[in-house]
Amino acid sequence: MPVKKVKLKDFDVDFDLIKIVMPDGEGLKVRISEQLLVNQALPADLMSKMAQCASKYARWGVVRGDLLTYSELLNDEYSMFIRRIKSIARSGMDAKATEGKIEEKAILNNVDEYTAKRKKIRQTNSALEKVKRVMKAFEIQSELMRSIKAKINKEEKMFEEENPIITEKKKSTSLSA
Question: Are 109 and 84 in contact (CB under 8 A)?
Fold first, then answer.
């Protein structure tokens, strides 16, 4: 019986693969594990990942800012909608009706519009949480890169201290140049 190889694409891990549907219908997709991969043996790869991390974090910060603005607009629109439908419902009820009864009647009279607005707000908040997760992954990656770079620098210094002949040659060549 042949052994089937397990591949990353066979799994749809919610935390790793993040799909964000923007308000304009555009979809953003990012796989966190791919963003965090780095070859520690290659300092050039390490440095390029450090440089990419800052730009990606900034780009996702812009997306987050846009989503926050959109979320605030949706919440303002929702509160105005609730006030409007409550006002209409209040005019059709007697003066002794409680606030809860007025709100219940208002929502029941406008169920479709109410659920559509709540759904948009939930989707936007969900997208915001996903963007925050992506940004947190880039923060973690940045810290990881810094600590790896510091470890490499420390090992290089220790190697130079163990081999003073090499450092003397470096000093003598730098003086002659």
Answer: no
Helix, strand, coil in percent for the chain, rounding step 5: 75, 5, 20
Q: In the chain, what's the furthest Cα-to-Cα distance? A: 98
Hey, where are the domains in the chain? 44-156
Q: What is the pLDDT along the chain (177 residues), one digit of tens a residue?
A: 454 444 444 444 455 566 776 667 777 777 666 655 555 555 666 667 777 777 888 888 888 888 888 889 999 999 999 999 999 998 888 878 888 888 999 999 999 999 999 998 998 888 888 888 888 888 887 787 778 778 877 877 777 776 655 555 455 554 544
57 close to 32: Cβ distance less than 8 angstroms: no
Neighbours of 97 (CB within 10 A): 14
Q: Could you tell me the pTM of the whole model?
A: 0.61
